Amino acid sequence: MAHIVVLGAGTGGMPAAYELREKLDTTHRVTVVNAVDYFQFVPSNPWLAVGWRERAAITFPIRPYLAKKGIDFIPQPVGRIDAEGNALEFPDGSRLAYDYLVIATGPKLAFEEVEGAGPKGFTTSVCTVDHAEHAYQAYQELTRNPGPVIIGALPGASCFGPAYEFSFIVNRDLRDKKIRNKIPMTYVTSEPYIGHLGLGGVGDSKSMLESEFRNNDIKWITNAKVTKVEAGKMFVTELDDLGNVRKEHELPFQFSMMLPAFKGVDPVAAVDGLCNPRGMVLVDEYQRSKKFRNIFSAGVCVAIPPVEVTPVPTGTPKTGYMIESMVSAIVHNICADLTGHAANAKGTWNAFCLADMGNTGAAFIALPQIPPRNVNWFKKARWVHWAKVAFEKYFIYKMKQGSSEPIYEKHVLKWIGIERLQENRDGGN
Ligand SMILES: Cc1cc2nc3c(=O)[nH]c(=O)nc-3n(C[C@H](O)[C@H](O)[C@H](O)COP(=O)(O)OP(=O)(O)OC[C@H]3O[C@@H](n4cnc5c(N)ncnc54)[C@H](O)[C@@H]3O)c2cc1C
Prior knowledge:
By secondary structure, this protein is an alpha/beta fold. The chain has 11 helices and 22 strands.
């Protein structure tokens, strides 16, 4: 009998636990450990930050849903991973032994890298449900006292989609409130150009998003290195393509939402030999730690090199479907290991994303994630807004049902050319 522990119950961890439970026979035990006792659907946070969602609609208590599937749950933050001793340690000193560990701890939000940034400083965030609630307070103040808005991404950020989404959502909401004319908006980003998205662009994302910004009176600064934030003022060094200083800006703002760079969470980053210098887990093509052969990892916490070097550092995003593909590979490989076979499943790591733009939206598919690509598709359409709303309901339903890949998803995504696991061209099982 093996004990498989999934650390982190987010977009990666929850499906991992369900899929493991589904594939493994009941002689094996599955336990989920998560810092908090609720699941949050992170992609809906931008809606919460303008009051389009309530917290209760995008969160739910984890325990009863895992219990229904026979999965144990420990709602406590892990303080230390004893990778040599195959155990997790909790702040109260207790230990949880494992045979296999799946790390899906998401990001540590590195606001401290820019003085004054983040919810403890002067900018807001939509990275967690708590942050989005705090952002909504600040947003309500903006609607009472209109002034300039800055939305964007700090140096080293890798997740840009939500910053674009939030720009268009705020724009839409302020128009609906008929106060957009009192609020200048600027998108400030470490990306080298609009629509880069940490992916070197996808299809014609550059012209399309520039055009949308122009059509919606949103100005922008790219190659932007935010160096400091004070109350109501952001200090930005704008670089040119060669990395030389082009201009220094002191931008006033009444409301700002800036996405931070991501690092690995402390107990993961602290394991000697597990991570890169940013604390992201180094895995092989089978999602397995290069040093600890019984540790696998999926999601934002996995180390992926940047698609290209940019004047202000940027990283590569990890999107939901890509994360699920990592999860499927891990489950397959743990099952293989338990039955004495070699791990041979590889996640496709394809980027597929639906981005809301208020009353319309943009969908993109990048297959593979790193160019040149077989599929490079970026499209703006009204149906994407509704598809994103439907996806929210569907994902939350899926996480409550305990199903990790219903037939509908399998076939629809296959139809548009997305598969979770790479075909095994080397033979094996
Ligand atoms: C605002 C926002 C919007 C996004 N929108 C989209 C989108 O529309 N589409 C898309 O494809 N991708 C989107 N993404 C990217 C990505 O899909 C999400 O970030 C996703 O939630 C990442 O999943 P994850 O499992 O890696 O991490 P998370 O979902 O963040 O889960 C990590 C879990 O680990 C737990 N944890 C952390 N440390 C510990 C510890 N020490 N002990 C115990 N538990 C711990 C946390 O409590 C958390 O529950 C978005 C990202 C952001 C930030």
